[in-house]
Amino acid sequence: MANSIECVPNISSADAAVVEAAAAQVRAVPGVTLLNTSSDLSHNRSVITFVGDPVGVEEAAVRLAKAAAARIDLTRHRGEHPRMGAVDVVPFVPIREATMAECVALSRRAAQRIWQEAGIPVFLYEASASAPNRKNLADIRRGEFEGMFEKVLQPEWEPDFGGRTVHPTAGVVAVGARAPLIAFNINLSTPDVAIANRIARAVRESGGGLPCVKAIGIYLSERDAAQVSINMTDYTRTPLHRAVEAVRAEAAKYDVGIVGTEIVGLAPMRALIDSAAYYLNIAQFDPEEQVLEYRLDV
Amino acid sequence: MANSIECVPNISSADAAVVEAAAAQVRAVPGVTLLNTSSDLSHNRSVITFVGDPVGVEEAAVRLAKAAAARIDLTRHRGEHPRMGAVDVVPFVPIREATMAECVALSRRAAQRIWQEAGIPVFLYEASASAPNRKNLADIRRGEFEGMFEKVLQPEWEPDFGGRTVHPTAGVVAVGARAPLIAFNINLSTPDVAIANRIARAVRESGGGLPCVKAIGIYLSERDAAQVSINMTDYTRTPLHRAVEAVRAEAAKYDVGIVGTEIVGLAPMRALIDSAAYYLNIAQFDPEEQVLEYRLDV
């Protein structure tokens, strides 16, 4: 089960010292490999990616949550990306031989420990959700940190672990198992975040757009530019190129172009190969047959 | 040294029974894995890809040459792709831990055996070439099978193995070590092969075009369409997308478009990832850091 689980916590800070403290906790756990940290100043948020065996990944996730809670005060946090916790979300992703069921079990163990050891109430989400209205992270997070103190008092929003008391500076956290996701940002040639929001609403699944696409508009102050920030939750259903071309078409309505895109953290090679085949217009291309690397390891 | 050498013989037949006979020879050799066969009816040619350890790959290449010589009669061969032998070219490619020098040594052993055991004279080419004018396959092959009987009589064109007697039905063969190559065809919206030839001349290195690009125009009778048939000899110097966009721009001069492309046989994933990053306009993308598969195996 070596490297069979990927964990991709998002913490609500882009401060290098905070990210390093969190990353150091991950590095210190045997059986775990830190793969990547990505910080965005406008989002005031960082994505930390690591892989390992189930026992190591659980330990690293709990230690990282403690480190984030000790260093991030959400009462002082400003950032363009919505957030409800110092450690905002902790997804566990099955890769290689691991199953989703194993990741659900792992997420429940980690959730309990994050409450017990870091004192942060936990909502289970996605494949680990305890109710249908808790599957979608955006629904759990609505109201953000500032609204969470009231939200948890509602009958349907008691956290799964920790009761109805929000951590005063670290908020709450969503923990769960999910399929691989690509965090994909598309930067626009306008600073007008209202346009980015209209594009996001048009292309995302919840607005009747592309399946398995979540999108919000964000203003990037350090660039004075608007961004459509996307989570691609299943690139086999909606590939990267379809999201880009849908955003390009919507943006054209406002005479706005795409100035560049970003992949935050890691992406599976197949998502990129599929987009290459699309743009290069390769006919009858079978990656599992024709990409050398697929063939050398079987 | 398992799977450290790739061998990609091209044989002058697209007949399924002939290809299967050649493939069966490869499959029968211990330490060798057949990865792919690709046949093109208009080219009347097939590309066979296998990997293995040096001893196994040498044995498989010799057996395949014998099988091809026994079944392909070039006096009756018609096809759009230039050819000089029943087995036209046998390249050995270092992958993983193998070196080019090891592939050169291997190619010389295989060349001697192909002459001794199959009776086919051999020109060493690319990294194995015995003279500068023999590095380029197109220079060796000029005149094709029909012209080879005269060509080998010229002082500078005596084969490296086998003397000046061309095999009466199997011709001659080029054997050598080379870097990985992508066989990449671009199909045009015109049947006019003269246009494909003009585009090929404009984009290929020998015509002052893109570095590490070889290209010829070919008429595909079964589609009634013209094709620019390309060998990309170093995709890190000229990537796939640059070749496609160069062909697109040249074709536009004739009011011709690209209807599709083909990758013949196998391609390294990095070539496709680089093109995805280009077309998706991904900024600051580091595949070795951000593509999951690169990170799991180190």
Structure description:
With 298 residues, the first copy, chain A, is of the alpha+beta class. The first copy, chain A, has 2 domains: 5-177, Formiminotransferase, N-terminal subdomain (Formiminotransferase-cyclodeaminase, Chain B, domain 1, 2-Layer Sandwich); 182-292, Alpha-Beta Plaits (2-Layer Sandwich), CATH 3.30.70. In chain A, 36% of the residues lie in helices and 23% in strands. Chain A is built from 10 helices and 11 strands. Chain A has helices at 16-27, 54-71, 100-118, 137-141, 144-151, 193-203, 240-252, 269-280, 287-290, 292-296, and strands spanning 5-7, 10-11, 32-40, 45-52, 87-94, 122-126, 173-177, 182-188, 213-220, 225-232, 258-264. In chain A, the strands form 2 sheets. In chain A, strands 1, 2, 3, 4, 5, 6 and 7 form a 7-stranded mixed sheet that branches. In chain A, strands 9-10-8-11 form a 4-stranded antiparallel sheet. The longest helix of chain A has 19 residues, at 100-118. Chain A is globular. At the A-B interface, β3, α7, β11, α8 and α9 of A face β3, α7, β11, α8 and α9 of B.
* CATH classification, class level of the largest domain in chain A: Alpha Beta
CATH-defined superfamily of the largest domain in chain A: Formiminotransferase, N-terminal subdomain
N-to-C SSE string of chain A, H for helix and E for strand: EEHEEHEHEHHEEHEEHEHHH
In DSSP terms (H or I, runs of 4 or more residues), the helix count of chain A works out at 10
Distance between the termini of chain A: 18 Å
Structural category of chain A: alpha+beta
Number of strands of chain A: 11
* Radius of gyration of chain A from CA coordinates: 19 Å
Instruction: Describe the oligomeric state of these chains in a short phrase.
Output: homodimer
For the report, how would you describe the main beta sheet of chain A? 7 strands, mixed
